[in-house]
Design goal:
The structure holds two protein chains of two kinds. Chain A is an alpha/beta fold. Helices cover 27% and strands 23% of the residues of chain A. Chain A has a single domain (56-361), classed as Alpha-Beta Barrel (TIM Barrel). Chain A has helices at residues 75-84, 103-116, 139-144, 160-172, 195-200, 208-224, 236-247, 284-296, 331-340, 346-353, 355-361; strands at 3-6, 9-12, 17-20, 22-26, 29-34, 44-47, 52-55, 57-59, 87-92, 120-126, 149-151, 176-179, 191-192, 204-205, 227-230, 252-257, 301-303, 376-386, 405-415, 418-422. In chain A, helix 1 (75-84) packs across helix 2, helix 4 packs across helix 6 (208-224) and helix 6 (208-224) runs parallel beside helix 7 (236-247). Helix content of chain B is 41%, strand content 14%. By secondary structure, chain B is α/β, with parallel strands linked by helices. The longest helix of chain B has 24 residues, at 300-323. In chain B, helix 7 links the parallel strand 5 (173-177) and strand 6 (200-204). Chain B has helices spanning 3-11, 29-46, 70-82, 103-111, 127-134, 152-166, 184-195, 225-229, 243-246, 253-260, 264-267, 290-293, 300-323, and strands at residues 60-65, 86-91, 117-122, 140-146, 173-177, 200-204, 220-222, 234-237, 275-277. Classes of the chains: A alpha/beta, B alpha/beta. Chain A binds chain B through residues 193-195, 198-204, 266, 269-271, 312, 315-320, and chain B through 1-3, 6, 25, 102-104, 122, 124-127, 129-130, 134, 146-150, 184, 187, 211-214, 216-217.
Chain lengths: 424, 325
């Protein structure tokens, strides 16, 4: 199908494009930028007047809950939420039931995603079998089954020798590790180990829970040459270590969840379980350090860490509630708050949501040069809208931003040249 | 939203009267003083032969205890009965929650019984707040201890004790000794003492039992007991739970007693008329020497007596605050 997207501002950070340029698509790919190709007849013209036309967003961490946790969400519902949020590619972590540690489960997830047809789902396989932290999963077979990286989420590899061997094996086959830096014996609490948790009597999680693991993994990377990506860093002390490792040439990247750049531990007052997150919201100082790191590029990608939950999971005293917030549909407007607050320019924000995550995974998507797959997000950066249960497509309603007016709204999303979401 | 405004929003009705009693943080000096005065009047009343007043007659008070506590529960029961209420005791560990029922469902099932007040003790910080937010309007919630967060009735009875025996708070140096990290009593006492204008509030203990950020509550930190007790007027000893040795907070009870136990020698560096308090139950020879616990400076048994009066005060004020909304 031939599609012309006209009247919008094309921002394609990977190719340093920012201008009032029309976009022309055919057979699922970009065929021209700016001027219509000779003889092009559009089957459909999308009026993007007043909007930004950007590559579809790439979210490096979004829980889809299927297989096994379908009371919290399904691949169909959550990828529909992704499309509504302008996200065209997302990585789903292996915390499913059964665990994503076999090619069969990896293929199941991809098949369901393809059947729903809303977004590209890039599975993250479990680093160790059944999340037990002891035996390596069949990493090469999992890669052949479509997994893009190997995640240690939910598994703490306590034995350092085992970890060293995981890294050596991964390095042998050039496999990428997605690391959640969380030292299990230090991470038993439910909130950042600061003044707010102390006053509320909540068991604190020291920042050492993250920094000790960041240090351990960086030393493994140095020892084995394994490629690492740290997911959802929350502590500013990790940044210095990361910057130094990057300066020395280690293949280490990182992302941060958008809520860690807007919220901090002071927001926990009142025991509101919507702020019960893992990694926890840390101090205002940490938030400032993470913002600097995203702006400077030491942290190269912004993600949602989308975790939809059923209502009961959040309806209990704070420590007894599940962690996480639903976030695919708020990723872009919350990111735009960072632009409003002068943390990033709009170009930089979009880079951290498209080319940045694409570079982490070595994906061809995340850019809109001629010949690229037509994964596109069209959004109105000024449009205000009320975040309410009615206008969320995710099954999860668990977000502390509920009831707030957000600015920036996706108007249409295209996946491989097909419209997968359109507003009104 | 800061804790003070949140706490007052939930706990106070539009007239500024108590309608739930969850935490002392954010409550005004006037309100705390009103609680002290009301408690004093009930103390005086309990010295008479007729100990009952009809303030809660016809009301049903449910003691909802998710944690063991014979002492606190029986003082609440006695307080409710002296206010002429009907009392139901629910020891939740033996009921449905041990079969996996959620707190919210337990609450909804209990509400079907049309109670007027729940006195709640729960191992999770914030549980009393959670219940206050989910309960039918008109039902008063009294926090009998939630996790490490707060034990407001204990702190208030401690303030009653201090005021009755030492007078004006503004002249007093108070030291709280022991496991502050895990103590809901300590947190509530610190809020109360600062709100009531205590001259100085000190916390004494090893680093493993003192939160790093404790100074932000308005206290001075001491790691040395002798320095911490010098010239103080009130010493509050906290119980040391034996589990703490197992998780490497301390090497042994013996070493703790050597460094932080209140012996007669240690007591001697405080003001000669200093009073010794303990929320109970005491561990003789672990945090306190028997002779000190039983000595003339000890208020430990008097605290228990003031506990009934303090709880009568809080319960009658909260019920009144609910019904005048």
């Amino acid at each position: 199908m031939n599609i012309a997207i006209t009247g919008g501002r094309l921002i394609d950070p990977a190719n340093q494009v920012n201008g009032l340029l029309d976009l022309y698509l055919a057979a699922g790919k970009v065929v021209a930028v700016g001027a219509s190709p000779a003889g092009f007849v559009a089957d459909r013209t999308i009026d993007a007047g007043g909007c930004v036309v950007a590559p579809g967003l790439i979210d490096l961490q979004a829980h889809l809950r299927e297989p096994g946790l379908t009371h919290k969400g399904t691949i169909a519902s959550e990828t529909a939420a992704a499309a509504a949020g302008g996200v065209t590619s997302l990585c789903c972590p292996p915390l499913t039931q059964p665990v994503l540690d076999t090619p069969a489960v990896a293929r199941l997830v991809q098949d369901k995603a393809a059947a729903a047809g809303f977004a590209r789902v890039l599975p993250l396989a479990a680093l160790t079998r059944n999340l037990e932290g002891e035996q390596l999963s069949n990493m090469v077979s999992l890669r052949e089954a479509g997994c893009v990286a190997f995640s240690n989420l939910g598994q703490w590899v306590g034995n350092t020798q085992t970890l060293l061997r995981c890294c050596e094996y991964a390095a042998t086959h050039d496999l990428l590790l997605f690391v959640r830096a969380e030292e299990r014996s230090l991470a038993g609490g439910c909130a950042h180990d600061g003044a707010t948790a102390m006053r509320l009597g909540l068991d604190g999680i020291s920042e050492a829970a993250e920094t000790v693991e960041v240090a351990r993994y960086l030393l493994m990377a140095e020892e084995t040459g394994v490629r690492l990506h740290f997911g959802q860093l929350a502590s500013q002390r990790s940044i210095a270590m990361l910057r130094e490792a990057q300066a020395r040439g280690l293949a280490v990247t990182a992302d941060v969840a958008v809520h860690h750049l807007l919220l901090c531990d002071e927001d926990l007052d009142g025991f509101d379980s919507r702020y019960h997150l893992q990694p926890p919201l840390r101090s205002a100082l940490d938030r400032a350090g993470l913002r600097d790191a995203l702006a400077s590029g030491v942290i190269g990608a912004l993600c949602s860490d989308h975790q939809p939950h059923d209502a009961a999971a959040k309806a209990a005293p704070f420590a007894a509630t599940a962690t996480g917030m639903t976030g695919l549909e708020t990723l872009l407007p919350l990111g735009l708050r960072l632009v409003e607050q002068g943390v990033l320019t709009l170009d930089e924000l979009l880079q951290r949501l498209t080319a940045g995550p694409a570079a982490v995974l070595g994906l061809a998507q995340g850019q809109l040069a001629v010949g690229a797959e037509a994964d596109i997000c069209i959004f109105d950066p000024q449009r205000e809208w009320l975040l309410s249960a009615q206008n969320l497509r995710s099954t999860g309603r668990n977000t502390p931003f509920m009831g707030q007016t957000l600015r920036g709204q996706v108007q249409a999303t295209l996946l491989a040249g097909r419209v997968v979401f359109e507003r009104g | 939203m800061n804790q003070s405004s949140y706490a007052t929003q939930v706990q106070l009705n539009e007239q500024g009267q108590l309608r739930h009693f969850l935490t002392l943080e954010g409550l005004s000096r006037e309100l705390l003083t009103e609680i002290l005065n009301t408690a004093d009047s009930f103390v005086d009343m309990s010295a008479q032969s007729v100990k009952k007043v009809p303030l809660l007659r016809g009301k049903t008070v449910v003691n909802l205890f998710f944690e063991n506590s014979t002492r606190t529960r029986s003082t609440f029961e006695l307080a409710a009965k002296r206010l002429s209420a009907d009392v139901l005791n629910l020891d939740i560990k033996t009921s449905a929650t041990s079969k996996g029922e959620t707190l919210r469902d337990t609450l909804w099932n209990l509400e079907a019984m049309a109670s007027d007040m729940f006195v709640v003790r729960h191992p999770d910080s914030g549980a009393a707040h959670f219940i206050a937010e989910h309960v039918t309007p008109g039902v008063a919630i009294i926090n009998a201890g939630d996790g490490r967060h707060a034990h407001p009735t204990q702190a208030m009875l401690d303030m009653v004790t201090i005021r009755r025996h030492k007078g004006d708070f503004s002249r007093l140096k108070v030291a709280i000794v022991g496991d502050i990290l895990h103590s809901r009593v300590a947190r509530s006492q610190i809020h109360a003492l600062n709100t009531l204008g205590a001259a100085e509030v000190r916390v004494v203990g090893p680093k493993t039992l003192l939160p790093k950020t404790i100074e932000s509550l308005g206290v001075k930190v001491y790691y040395d007991l002798a320095a911490g007790l010098r010239d103080v007027d009130v010493i509050v000893m906290l119980r040391l739970q034996t589990e703490r040795m197992a998780s490497a907070f301390l090497p042994s009870q013996g070493e703790f007693y050597k460094l932080y136990g209140l012996s007669r020698e240690r007591l001697a560096v405080a003001h000669p008329e200093a009073i010794v308090m303990h929320p109970g139950p005491i561990n003789r020879g672990v945090e306190i020497e028997s002779e000190v616990a039983d000595g003339c400076q000890s208020m430990i048994l008097k605290q228990v007596g003031y506990g009934v009066a303090t709880r009568m005060a809080v319960m009658s004020m909260a019920m009144s605050g609910q019904t005048t909304q």
